[in-house]
Specification:
Number of domains: 2
Structural class: alpha/beta
Oligomer: single chain
């Protein structure tokens, strides 16, 4: 049994219910953990979280904390919000293959930054685009 599981999801409501991909199996990791945390792109008022044909709800009873972290999936995609950052992923894979290079990667993208917002600013400065239209999910 894992002590902690952290997932990233589309949205949560103010009660702590979380909207996840319909075909995702993250619920298995969430339910297996002693403590489960969800980072989400958006937090909406209770009652406004409605699944569509591509998503489903996980109950608030599964989570110990919900954290609002826009762009929290980067460099991976968050469908309906932003796409995969292929250039950054290529850089990551290349640097992860060498211990010294990976230390350099961690220094630049993790340790030298004060918070996630600084990370987002850095990757946008390096050319990652996250157009507002791509971030908006259709509201039901």
């Amino acid at each position: 049994m894992p002590d902690y599981t952290v997932i990233h999801a589309y949205r949560a409501d103010s009660k702590g219910n979380v909207l996840i991909d319909k075909y995702s199996d993250v619920d298995l990791a969430v339910q297996a953990a002693k403590v489960a945390i969800a980072t989400v792109e958006e937090i909406v008022p209770e009652g406004k979280l409605v699944p569509d044909k591509k998503s489903r709800l996980m109950s608030w009873i599964n989570f110990h904390a919900i954290v609002h972290v826009p762009f929290g999936s980067h460099p991976a995609a968050c469908p309906g919000y932003y796409s995969l950052d292929k250039d950054h992923l290529k850089q990551y894979v290349k640097m992860a293959g060498n211990k010294e290079h990976f230390k350099s990667y961690l220094k630049k993208y993790v340790y030298d930054l004060s918070d996630h917002n600084e990370y987002v600013k850095l990757v946008k400065k390096q050319g990652w685009s996250s157009s507002p239209a791509a971030r908006r999910r259709q509201k039901n």
